[in-house]
Amino acid sequence: MLPKASTSMHALPPAHQLEVLIDAESIARRVRELSAQISADYRGRPVRLIGILKGAWVFMADLIRHLDLEVSVDFLSFTSYGDGAQSSGTVKITKDLDQSIAGLDVLIVEDILDTGQTFEYLRGVLEAHKPRSLKVVTLLDKPSRRVRPVKADYVGFTVPDVFVVGYGLDYAQQYRHLSDVRILRLPL
Ligand code: IMP
Ligand code: MG
Predict the structure, then answer these.
(1) How far, in Å, is the centroid of ligand 1 from the Cα of 45?
(2) Residues with CB under 6 A from ligand 1
(3) How many A from CA of 46 to the centre of ligand 2?
(4) Catalytic: 114?
(5) What's the pLDDT score for residue 178?
(6) Tell me, what's the pLDDT at 13?
(7) Taking the model in full, what pTM does it have?
(8) DSSP string covering the chain, please?
């Protein structure tokens, strides 16, 4: 049985009313820089990118198209947040890896590092599969919210303690399609 589609007690504001934090051109520029850096660091080595669904897939789709490397992809999906902005505290894998990562150079692709709880859990799960190396690239980093001691190897933008949506990131499954990263002021 699939969970019911989320219903919000509040009507969500239309996207154009949300303040732009990072515009599409800045994202595109930064994504190219990250791709160039990653291509240089992994030069000559095949890399397996693991996208964390669903937040990271827009970023990942742009990132891989600028990588000058032998690249393969896989995806992992798990629930850590409910449909709102609060951590549910429980983590459940809902889509596991399709292929083994044993002995591979693995780069996790994340949308945002917030408290770090999700990533700390995820890193444990992936390290148990014995990759040759394990790094993480995150589009956004919110270090002011960190409760676990985790750090990304590559960061697109460091953002203040605001809830952001767009370019893959959602609130109640909405706003993922926006080409900018925008601020959603909570509570609504
Ligand atoms: P963490 O475990 O607190 O680091 O949570 C990381 C996950 O929470 C991210 O991968 C996002 O899915 C979600 N998240 C955290 N902050 C935001 C935000 O500002 N906007 C949208 N999603 C967020
Ligand atoms: Mg996520």
Answers:
(1) 30
(2) 55, 80-81, 87, 110-119, 163-165, 169
(3) 25
(4) yes
(5) 98
(6) 97
(7) 0.93
(8) -PPPPP--SSPPPPGGGSEEEE-HHHHHHHHHHHHHHHHHHTTTS-EEEEEEETTTHHHHHHHHTT--S-EEEEEEEEEEE-SSSSEEEEEEEEE--SS--TT-EEEEEEEEESSSHHHHHHHHHHHTT--SEEEEEEEEE-GGG--S----SEEEEE--SSEEEBTTB-BTTBSTT-SSEEEE-S--
